[in-house]
Design brief:
Elements: H1 5-31, H2 36-61, H3 68-84, H4 91-107
Length: 108
């Protein structure tokens, strides 16, 4: 399947927007009150399927992409998301998450 340049640019922009939204979501998972088990569940349920789809679509559009800089940025973002699939929360992050969960429990 081939696309016009305008269609390819549009699809690349959609990929960029989806990638940025997903990167933002992963950042929140890593910095908010999630246990490692909750983080791993989010990765399994949300990140992996999205990452697979984004990677497949990017590969299909790669030869038609008119903006190599944007394509490179998308590929860099995909690499960051790939790393996030095996991310281990630090002891400090887990400690803060536990503290926030306890504070919420005792406020109620």
């Amino acid at each position: 399947m081939t696309f016009t340049n305008q269609e390819t640019d549009y699809l690349m922009n959609l990929l960029t927007n989806q990638l940025m939204a997903l990167l933002g979501r992963v950042m929140r998972w890593q910095t908010h009150s999630l246990s490692q088990q909750q983080y791993d569940r989010q990765v399994h349920e949300t990140l992996r399927p999205e990452l697979t789809m984004l990677t497949d679509i990017t590969a299909k559009l790669q030869e038609q992409a008119t903006d190599p800089t944007q394509l490179g940025a998308i590929q860099a973002g995909l690499k960051k998301l790939q790393v996030a699939t095996t991310y281990q929360l630090t002891a400090d992050q887990l400690g803060h998450a536990n503290e926030r969960r306890l504070n919420r429990r005792y406020r109620s």
